[in-house]
Amino acid sequence: MPARYTDDTVRSGLLSRRSFLIGSAAALGALGQAGCTTGGMTRAEAARVYGPVPDEQFPIPAVDVKKVDPDYYRRTVRYDTDKAPGTIIVDPGNYFVYRVEEEGLATRYGANVGRAGFLWSGDAYVGRKAEWPTWTPPKEMILRQPEAAKYAGGMPGGLDNPLGARTLYLYQNGAYTLYTIYSTSHPETIGTNLTSGCIGLLTQDMLHLYSRTPVGTNVVVRPA
């Protein structure tokens, strides 16, 4: 069951990734601590890290890194937590996603997060993961946005699919929460409150996180 979306308009007949994600909120509790940077990328370095990925099923274009605050470029940071290495910790108040590493470090990614009224916090886990997934709008969205009905049978994966190149589906107690960590090709959304609870990373960051995240990985979403 795919992630839900905001009420933004449909552009060029395709649902923009910027219109991403309406979900029903779940009330939970969380913890985590902010990271201290050990050094970041220059814009020239970022242009290389966020360059094109031509060998994908659908070739991924380069990120326009000028549209991203350099503080949101991927980096390694000091991070004090009792969570096991591999755990994903989301800090929506600061627009960061952390992957806990060994020796008190974490990989930090810039993110977009839930808009006002749709932020949530708590414990979850990656129940499944998908590359270039099909997106099917939930019934609630079709009622709210009738133009989405054309995708009731599913929108195939591709560059215009709102779920992006990679998606991690968040579960609790064996059930899909309707929240995801997904990839976005819209760099201007990083560091903004855009979704209704889902968490978006730049596509190149999502490729990096996805490849290191097995099904069953614990995810902690901190209060904003």
Ordered list of secondary-structure elements with their pairings:
Elements: E1 10-11, E2 14-15, E3 36-37, H1 43-49, E4 75-78, E5 88-91, E6 96-100, E7 105-110, E8 113-114, E9 122-131, H2 139-144, E10 166-172, E11 175-184, E12 193-195, E13 199-202, H3 203-210, E14 218-221
Parallel strand pairs: 5-14, 8-12, 11-13
Antiparallel strand pairs: 1-2, 3-4, 4-7, 5-6, 6-7, 9-10, 9-14, 10-11
Supply the number of helical segments: 3
Order of helices and strands: EEEHEEEEEEHEEEEHE
CATH hierarchy class name: Mainly Beta
End-to-end Cα distance, whole Å, is 26 Å
What does this entry look like structurally?
This protein is mainly β. It has one domain (10-221): L,D-transpeptidase catalytic domain-like. It is built from 3 helices and 14 strands. The strands form 3 sheets. It has a 10-stranded mixed sheet, covered by helices on one side. Strand 10 and strand 11 form a beta hairpin. The longest helix has 8 residues, at 203-210. The protein is globular, with a radius of gyration of 16 Å. The model is unreliable at 1-38 (pLDDT under 50).
Short description:
The protein is mainly beta and 224 residues long. The protein has three helices and 14 strands.
Question: Keywords, please?
Answer:
224 residues; L,D-transpeptidase catalytic domain-like; two-stranded antiparallel ribbon; mainly beta; disordered N terminus; 29% strand; ten-stranded mixed sheet; 14 strands; 3 helices
